[in-house]
Write a structure and sequence with these properties.
The structure holds two protein chains of two kinds. Chain A is mainly beta. Chain A is built from four helices and 18 strands. Chain A has a 16-stranded mixed β-sheet that branches. By secondary structure, chain B is α/β, with parallel strands linked by helices. Chain B is globular and about 55 Å long. The chains are: A mainly beta, B alpha/beta. At the A-B interface, α2 and α3 of A face α2, β7 and α3 of B. Chain A: Belongs to the iron-sulfur cluster assembly SufBD family. Chain A: InterPro entries: Fe-S_cluster_assembly_SufBD (IPR055346), SUF_FeS_clus_asmbl_SufBD_core (IPR000825), SUF_FeS_clus_asmbl_SufBD_sf (IPR037284), SUF_FeS_clus_asmbl_SufD (IPR011542). Chain A: This is Fe-S cluster assembly protein SufD.
């Protein structure tokens, strides 16, 4: 498949399955300028050797099928085209893929849990996952990432007409992990998609969730919580492509940062194309800076090519813990340390409490406590 | 019996290019358990600074003088230590704390001040009772602290905290401002319940005499220019009601 040009918008105009269609990034490109390429261990320039080990294990729910398939399976790669070199590299390099299918009109009562466990960060691994909801199906899928890895992957979420998919991605990697991931959601007519990304562990984690609509009435909510400690690079690059009428999108990502060289990057790209009349979109990123020495890059981009929208907006705010909050809590006898914890917990908790799977929510709360103990 | 003693208190604000500005210029006050003191004064007289300085807000610097609670040096304590020692400040503008629920906040505060966590059931019952007494909808327990509350709702929650934390000495900073008459009555009843046992003292800071119809002061102090310029009994409030602050402002400025 050759290079496709979408000259209408300046955002995300390149797409190809062929690695060679993308130049090796130098770090000056818009999409790579915040990422420390030297820490990518060759995932971006073809030098990564693909003999690492990331083991996928699935806990299937009644009503859903989970299959491990070869790369020739025709159901793969139908919902997206890679938009950068690492995505194309992951597509070119994976050996096996996992496909989760929820048949038409099937409503799962339990979540499907996919556990990916890295066993070796010294060599690269490439993965591919597809979650397919047929029309009017309902499901929750949990993607857990743990262990040590140098890992790049594409994840496809195909949400059929009238279907509803909730996805929770938990990035709780070991300290030496590099993970570059692309989450491609494609929503059918009146489909609903809710995504949570919780990114806590890893040396460098770069996640690019994207949403495209196949029909009118699609509804996407993308939430993210991250906690960057000293030396960690946690990057989230959102892209919502409104090219159908009357679709809705909401983005709310929040992060906390502490200690030297903790770096958080958030990019929120939204395009409303000329044909996407009646679009309703809002994106928000907030960062809470807990100590000196951290860095936040937060860049919302909204490109509107039609005047007929219901709503289109974005906001980004990064700041220190509010002294007035701390004073108020302390004036009620609460110690400074506990006051700080309460404010951070509250700030991130407003998103965590939206996670619908109680066990996962408890795990996330526990992991945030562990971050606060550091 | 609890006693808060403030002696020759001088407080400044700011340390930037314009230098520190002295707001309090020698305040002397003694508040004993069982007493209600009203501090009245015009805008900018330093009333709120006094409240913040007593509770230890980092913006204010005590340059000289002393504050003791039962002989203990309050100024040497951190903000939270002061609260645990038995001081309480009902804020004029309570801040909104997103994501921290009223019940979670109250339980944390009660645990800190009492030194042990109350049993969940006992606490829930106590909180419900205290909220009922202040006509606060129980649904507020699950809402984010002060977030989206009206002015009156915020003030009710300040008094809710007062009644649950049971401090020795409470400083109420313009708790009456922005309240309609019904809310003022509800809030005043809460303050009177708090002081009914006679074991607690109140320092009530206000601009208006209106609240003094519901919360009866034993002493009234007129504040101007960063210090107390006149003191008397409840009758002084009536004088202020009729004559205003004008002559005291002059007295404060010339001091």
């Amino acid at each position: 498949m050759g290079l496709e040009q979408r000259p209408v918008s300046t955002l995300h105009e390149r797409a190809s399955f062929d690695v060679a269609d993308f130049e090796v990034p130098t770090g000056r490109e818009e999409e790579w300028r915040f990422t420390p390429l030297r820490r990518l261990r060759g995932l971006h320039n073809g030098t990564a050797e693909a003999h690492g080990k990331v083991i996928a294990e699935a806990v299937a729910a009644a009503g859903a099928t989970v299959e491990t398939v070869g790369r020739e399976d025709p159901r793969l790669g139908r919902s997206f085209v890679p938009a950068d070199r690492v995505s194309a590299q992951a597509w070119a390099s994976f050996a096996q893929a996992t496909i989760v299918t929820v048949p038409k009109e099937t409503e799962l009562t339990e979540p499907v849990v996919l556990r990916l466990r890295g066993e070796d960060a010294s060599a690269a691994s490439f993965g591919h996952t597809a979650v397919v909801l047929e029309p009017f199906a309902r499901a929750t899928v949990v993607l857990e990432h743990r262990g040590a890895a140098t890992y790049a992957d594409n994840v496809e979420f195909v949400v059929g007409d009238g279907a509803s998919l909730s996805v929770i991605g938990l990035q709780d990697w070991d300290d030496d992990t590099v993970h570059v991931s692309y989450q491609h959601a494609r929503l059918g007519r009146d489909a609903r998609f809710v995504s949570h990304n919780v990114t806590l562990g890893g040396d460098l984690v770069r996640i690019s969730p994207s949403v495209v609509y196949d029909g009118p009435g699609g509804d996407a909510e993308l939430y993210g919580v991250y906690f960057a400690d000293g030396g960690q690079h946690l990057e989230h690059r959102l892209f919502v492509d409104h090219d159908r009428p009357r679709c809705r999108s909401r983005v709310d990502y929040r992060g906390a940062l502490q200690d030297a060289d903790a770096h958080a990057v958030w990019i929120g790209d939204v395009v409303i194309r000329a044909e996407a009349e009646g679009t309703d979109t809002y994106e928000l990123n907030r960062n809470l800076v807990l100590t000196d020495g951290t860095r936040v890059d937060s860049v919302p981009n909204l490109e509107i090519l039609t005047g007929e929208v219901v709503g289109a907006g974005h906001a980004s705010a990064s700041g220190r813990l509010d002294d007035e909050h701390l004073f108020y809590l302390q004036a009620r006898g609460i110690t400074a340390d506990e006051a700080r914890r309460m404010v951070v917990r509250g700030f991130l908790g407003q998103l965590v409490e939206r996670i619908e799977v109680p066990e996962v929510r408890a795990k996330v709360e526990e992991a945030i406590e562990a971050e606060l103990d550091r | 019996m609890a006693t808060l003693e403030i002696r020759d208190l001088h407080v400044s604000v700011g340390d930037g290019a314009e230098g520190a500005k002295e707001i309090l210029r020698g305040v002397d006050l003694t508040i004993r358990a069982g007493e209600t003191h009203a501090i009245m004064g015009p805008n900018g007289s330093g009333k709120s600074t006094l409240a913040y300085a007593i509770s230890g807000h980092p913006k204010y610097t005590v340059t000289s003088g002393s504050v003791t609670l039962d002989g203990e040096d309050v100024l040497a304590m951190s903000v939270d230590e002061r609260a645990r020692a038995g001081l309480f400040l009902a804020m004029q503008y309570p801040v909104e704390v997103p994501g921290v629920s009223v019940s979670n906040f109250l339980r944390s505060a009660v645990t800190a001040v009492r030194g042990e966590a109350p049993k969940l059931r006992d606490f829930a019952k106590e909180m419900k009772g205290a909220m009922d007494a202040l006509s606060i909808d129980p649904a507020f327990a699950q809402r984010s602290l002060n977030e989206g509350f009206s002015g009156g709702e915020k003030k009710r929650h300040e008094i809710l905290q007062l009644e649950m934390l049971k401090p020795k000495i409470a400083v109420l900073d313009e708790t009456d401002s922005g309240l309609d008459v019904d809310a003022l009555k509800v809030v005043s009843e809460g303050v009177n319940r708090f002081s009914a046992g006679g074991e607690t003292g109140i320092l009530l800071i206000t601009h208006y005499t209106r609240i003094l119809r519901y919360v009866k002061p034993d002493f009234v102090h007129v504040f101007a220019g960063g210090r107390v310029v006149a003191a008397g009994g409840p009758e002084l409030a009536d004088v202020l009601e009729n004559e205003g602050y004008e002559k005291y402002v002059k007295a404060g400025a010339s001091a």
